[in-house]
Design a protein that fits this description.
By secondary structure, the chain is mainly alpha-helical. The protein has helices at about 20-45, 45-60, 65-85, 90-105, 110-130, 140-145. It has one domain. The chain is built from six helices and no strands. α1 (about 20-45) runs antiparallel to α3 (about 65-85) and α3 (about 65-85) runs antiparallel to α4 (about 90-105).
Length: about 150
């Protein structure tokens, strides 16, 4: 084992192991799929969006119609980003913001068990924003760079 460089964790020689890549990819697929699955009905069926809008109104959200649509589409696009790796860090920040608002406005009322899913998604968004998508991700800059030739 080589000596670690300053600021580098011990045992990390600057390369991502296959297991770390696989673990991050599994987390991305799990969270991304969950987000897409969780809001698809709101996108497809207007009545489901109306129910979510009424839920937000009940909990005192400003502009519940707009808030519902922004939240649903944010979750959907974050899910797609987590799955593909495109726009990943920005999507992580958006996910963190969306679910932090959910905890602050609604889920705190239900204690740690009730707030845990949204809190976990908020922290996962923060982690994704800080970490990046890893090696198993699409990279638009490579596609764009190739098209400029």
């Amino acid at each position: 084992m080589q000596a670690s460089q300053p600021g580098q964790p011990i045992g990390d020689e600057g390369t991502t192991s296959r297991w770390e890549t696989l673990a991050l990819l599994c987390l991305r697929v799990l969270v991304g799929s969950f987000l897409v699955w969780g809001v698809t009905d709101n996108i497809i069926f207007p009545a489901k969006m109306d129910i979510f809008e009424a839920f937000l109104e009940t909990h005192g959200f400003p502009w519940p119609g707009l808030s519902a649509r922004v939240s649903v589409w944010a979750q959907f696009l974050c899910g797609l980003s987590f799955l593909s790796g495109v726009g990943f860090r920005l999507a992580g920040a958006v996910c963190a913001l969306n679910f932090t608002v959910a905890v602050v406005m609604v889920d705190y009322k239900f204690g740690i068990r009730g707030a845990f899913p949204a809190a976990l998604l908020a922290v996962t968004g923060l982690y994704f924003s800080a970490r990046g998508p890893g090696r198993a991700a699409l990279r638009l800059r490579r596609v764009w760079a190739g098209s400029r030739k």
